[in-house]
């Protein structure tokens, strides 16, 4: 029999996404050794279940789904961490950003953000609760559609939307606080005043 | 669209989830609303910033690529728990006829049941260590109680010379199965017990009748009895086996 083996078909479909899968695995596990194991386990599993993949649908999304599930079932179990369900109150930090920028007479939309370094964004991202972080990464880094993200995370599209919404708000809050702390932004009064007070205290401590 | 709607769906809009008509509706609003325009601009810049900060290339270490390919090759190797024939399991229509001695050399697209038989033969050949050693069916049944999601009812043999050796967890396709080993006059008989409803109609043996398969020198009998699926793999001849088992 000289047909192309199933493995060759699988490798042709799956291996072009190895870099993306490894990048995601790194973000999930936080270290290279676990990330490598996770990628290998996931691809072996995907290969075993390749018959379940519907030709014509998005193989990358399918592989990510297997990766995320494998992570939850193996790495997470080993570390004995339960899934997080965090309730977060986020007042509108976009308003604060915009108001600050107006006070400073600067172009809010590009000016402030330009001053934030990539490491600061990455650090803020690390602090996000995992369910929000995953949604934001899948959307912003990997360009998956809401429907694909819902499929990967095994939740309804509405949940994806709310996770993205809240994740980005939290990110903006963290970065707003940071920008105020660094003096990139003049704080403005927010509705309840807490954010500014926190930032003010941190600034005082820093001095 | 008004301000509330635009701001409520800002992310969906910027993430490209809107269809053409919806995009036009937002664009129309933005032409006249400075406030929403600022928000859109900010959110867009924010997204770009996040994207730019996180989308740095992750290069896969070369050894990982090699490791993955090796692991996949291992899965495919016939002696290992092979995936061969897996793809046949899905689409092919149910072959409801009783197949006697289907010649493996002639197969092109084998019917699903043949894949089930193939799996049974592979497990039988591997002869892996058992999880439980017990000669009483009740002890073996007890072992599986909390391990497989169905009741394990060992088959009933008519002759005393059939001796139960023990069992282990196995799987047929991705489904859990109980694997039991018997000895008959020094020869090994492997019995797989599975939940036929988990396999779907194309794979599951019918309640009446036995599907015989001959694969690489082994005979496999597939049958269902009172809601339990059985696959019996052995190197004995069907007549011989038939005299031993109450089907």
3D architecture notes:
- The complex is a heterodimer of chains A (207) and B (247).
- Chain A is mostly helical.
- Chain A has two domains: 6-79, RNA polymerase sigma factor, region 2, helix turn helix motif (Rna Polymerase Sigma Factor, Chain: A, Orthogonal Bundle); 93-206, Winged helix-like DNA-binding domain superfamily/Winged helix DNA-binding domain (Arc Repressor Mutant, subunit A).
- Chain A is 71% helix and 0% strand.
- Chain A has helices spanning 6-14, 18-29, 32-48, 59-79, 93-104, 108-114, 118-127, 130-141, 146-153, 157-181, 194-206.
- The longest helix of chain A is centred in the C-terminal third of the chain and has 25 residues, at 157-181.
- Chain A is elongated and about 65 Å long.
- Chain B is an alpha+beta fold and 247 residues long.
- Chain B has two domains: 3-54, no CATH class; 67-244, 2-Layer Sandwich (Phosphorylase Kinase, domain 1).
- A seven-stranded antiparallel β-sheet of chain B has the order 1-2-3-4-7-6-5, with helices on both faces.
- Residues 78-110 of chain B have low confidence and may be disordered.
Offer a concise description of the structure:
The complex is a heterodimer of chains A (207) and B (247). Chain A is an all-alpha fold and 207 residues long.
């Amino acid at each position: 029999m000289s047909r192309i083996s199933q493995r060759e078909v699988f490798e042709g479909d799956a291996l072009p996404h190895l870099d993306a899968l490894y990048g995601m695995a790194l973000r999930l596990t936080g270290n290279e050794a676990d990330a490598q194991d996770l990628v290998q386990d996931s691809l072996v599993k995907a290969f075993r279940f390749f018959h379940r993949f519907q030709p014509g649908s998005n193989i990358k999304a399918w592989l990510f789904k297997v990766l995320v599930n494998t992570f939850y079932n193996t790495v997470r179990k080993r570390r004995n961490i339960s899934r997080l369900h965090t309730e977060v109150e986020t007042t509108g930090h976009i308003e604060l950003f915009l108001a600050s920028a107006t006070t400073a007479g600067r172009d809010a939309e590009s000016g402030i953000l330009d001053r934030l370094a990539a490491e600061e964004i990455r650090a803020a991202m690390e602090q996000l609760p995992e369910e929000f972080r995953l949604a934001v990464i899948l959307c912003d880094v990997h360009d998956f559609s809401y429907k694909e993200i819902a499929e990967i995370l095994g939740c309804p599209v509405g949940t994806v939307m709310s996770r993205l919404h809240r994740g980005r708000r939290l990110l903006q809050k963290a970065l707003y606080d940071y920008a105020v702390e660094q003096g990139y932004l003049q704080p403005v009064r927010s509705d309840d005043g807490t954010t500014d007070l926190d930032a003010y205290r941190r600034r005082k401590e820093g001095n | 669209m008004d301000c509330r709607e635009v701001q409520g769906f800002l992310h969906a809009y910027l993430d490209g989830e809107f269809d053409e008509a919806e995009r036009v509706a937002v664009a129309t609003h933005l032409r006249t609303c400075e406030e929403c325009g600022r928000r859109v601009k900010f959110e867009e810049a924010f997204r770009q910033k996040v994207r730019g900060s996180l989308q740095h290339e992750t290069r896969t270490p070369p050894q990982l690529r090699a490791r993955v390919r090796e692991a996949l090759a291992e899965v495919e190797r016939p002696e290992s728990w092979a995936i061969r024939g897996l793809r046949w399991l899905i689409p092919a229509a149910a072959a409801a006829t009783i197949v006697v001695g289907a010649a493996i050399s002639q197969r092109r697209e084998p019917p699903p049941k043949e894949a089930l038989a193939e799996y049974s033969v592979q497990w039988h050949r591997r002869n892996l260590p058992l999880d439980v050693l017990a000669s009483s069916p009740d002890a073996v049944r007890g072992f599986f109680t909390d391990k497989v999601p169905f009741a394990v009812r060992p088959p009933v043999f008519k002759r005393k010379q059939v001796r139960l050796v023990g069992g282990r967890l196995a799987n047929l396709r991705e489904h859990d199965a109980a694997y039991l080993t018997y000895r008959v006059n020094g020869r090994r008989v492997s019995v797989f017990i599975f939940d036929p409803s988990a396999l779907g109609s194309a794979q599951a043996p019918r309640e009446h009748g036995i599907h015989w398969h001959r694969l690489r020198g082994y005979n496999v009998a597939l049958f269902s009895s009172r809601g339990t699926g059985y696959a019996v793999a052995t190197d004995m001849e069907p007549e011989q086996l038939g005299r031993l088992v109450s089907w």
